Amino acid sequence: MSTTLMVVIGAIILFVGYVFYGKYLAEKVLVLDPKAKTPAETLYDGIDYVPTPAPVLLGHHFASIAGAGPITGPIAAAVFGWVPVFLWIVIGSVFFGGVHDFTALVASVRHEGKSVGEVVRAHIGEKGQFFFLCFSYLALVLVVAVFTILVVQTFVAVPAVATTSILFIILAVGFGLAVYRYKAPLGISTVIGVALLFFCVWLGVQYPINASATFWTWFCLVYIAVASILPVWILLQPRDYLNSFLLYISLLGALLGLILGNPSLEFPAFIAFNTSAGPLFPMLFVTVACGAISGFHSLVSSGTTAKQLANEKDAKIIGYGAMLIEGLLALVALATVTCLTKDGYATALKELGGPSGVFSAGVGQFMSHFGIPVAFGTTFGALAVNAFCLTSLDTATRLGRYAWEEFFSTRVPSLSNKYLATFVTVALAGALALSGSWSQIWPIFGSANQLLAALALLTVSVWLTSLQRDSRPTMYPMVFMFAATLTALVFLIKDNLAKGNLVLGIPGILLFVLAIFLVVEAVNVLGKMKKEKPGIGA
Asked: What whole-number distance in Å separates Cα of residue 90 and Cα of residue 16?
């Protein structure tokens, strides 16, 4: 069997899942209504609520959810062997992650474009919303800290990426002004914007900016603070949209290289149940992370994306489709490992600086099969990884702002100011980013992220049950994710406390307790619903 065949089989499964299971979810479970007015139209404010063409919103959404997770996770999880990782990517994307993202998006649209926390309040209660917002805010602080570290590491290791990223930001502002302020045609603007994007890549290679990690950390913190406050159409949305083309091209380039090169599959199918990463259950499911399901996606779906959805019919391609594209990206990341031997994998992780380096080098090798120099392809792969991280970084900061504002808006209105919300979020994440490496924060982030997915699925299950719709597509994945993530979190809490690492041990305990409290609240509500309407949720 070749690495290419593995990816092709996975891609076919993802496509079939989109066509058939996606149709079932859209028509039978969520009952999408193309004639319904969305919050982007009814609550338009020109800042957060902005009706957006489907291609632009898909670009923003995909670029926001596809952080380092679908690249780092599958490569790190390959320590168990390629078969467990492959199976979890395809099964997880179709029946777990895609369902999670899609239902969270539609639930938010049906609740004025507000976050999953508002859905919790409406269907589980004020106490449940309190627990959920506390949990999601802590998780978002971890997301911002992790991605800040990863972006800074890339800026330091590949200075050309730093220059290019700064130029991308300037280009995005110009694109946003052209399309939204001066009404330039989207098609022409896109062609010019993408051309300028690759010109920025060339300029970055020609004029790399060398600076220290501390400098770039502060630069990133200032940037995300500004990006969190600016209207979504002037920076966040256009930058993500243009960046999505860089991501699409790198993905298509890797796939074309795989088809032409057809590398053999050298990696072991299965290595061991117990490895240096821990036992396969539960660690596989929190390590692959965003490559199969990610709680962060529910915050993106119900945070920025729901406020920009112009028509409910677009929710399927944006909510469900984007996750399956991310699943395809995870398969490509896995492919950069499967063409290596077990020893070659260990050497590559050590010599190339971790999973991101393995991915970049693998993409460079794949692209070389159709004439692209390996060095250029590797640099291009590094740019793509950084683009994933940076788009997730500024989106996560904005979502942290939303969570803070939502929490205090009805409790202490004076503290719900968006500037204060942004400052506190950036300050907390910055303190974590400046105090540790990603390898220390990633495991606890992975568990918190996947547990957040379980909580989002739980919330949507209660919502669907209240509508007397089929809640099984969300209920079954929710039960499994709780079993896997709570177990993983217990392992990590014990490990951190044993090492005296209170910085990560205490947040782990808080996340665990908050999750249990929310589960208890939700189970009580479901029990009352079933007593009132015995056939509900069947």
From this structure: 11
Rounded CA Rg of the chain: 22
Choose among 330, 427, 415: nearest CA to 73.
Answer: 330
Alpha-carbon distances, residue 396 vs 55, 150, 162, 444 (angstroms): 21, 14, 20, 17
Is the CA virtual torsion 141, 144, 147, 153 positive or negative? negative
Contact call for residues 135 and 511 (beta carbons, < 8 A): yes
Which residues span the domain enclosing 110?
3-532
14 inside domain: yes
Q: Which of 117, 431, 161 is nearest to 295 (CA)?
A: 117
Q: Tell me the pLDDT tens digit for each residue of 133-192.
A: 888 898 889 889 888 988 888 888 788 889 988 998 999 999 999 998 899 998 999 999
Peptide bond into 373 cis (omega under 30): no
Answer for the pair 430, 148: CB distance below 8 angstroms, yes or no. Answer: yes
Q: Which residue has the tokens 């004020």?
A: 126
Largest CA-CA distance found in the chain, in angstroms, rounded: 68
pLDDT per position as a tens digit, 296-352: 899 899 888 999 999 999 999 999 999 999 999 999 999 999 999 999 999 998 888
Total domains in the chain come to 1
**Is residue 299 within 8 Å of 101, Cβ to Cβ?**
no
Cα separation, 448 vs 507, in Å, equals 10
In angstroms, the CA 52 to CA 318 distance is: 12
Closest by alpha carbon to 62, among 207, 275, 240? 240
**Domain annotation covers residue 357:** yes
Please choose, from the candidates 297, 267, 312, 270, the residue with its C-alpha nearest in 3D space to the C-alpha of residue 80: 270
The residues facing 264 across adjacent strands are 2
**Residue 537 in domain:** no
**Dist CA 201 CA 199 (whole Å):** 5
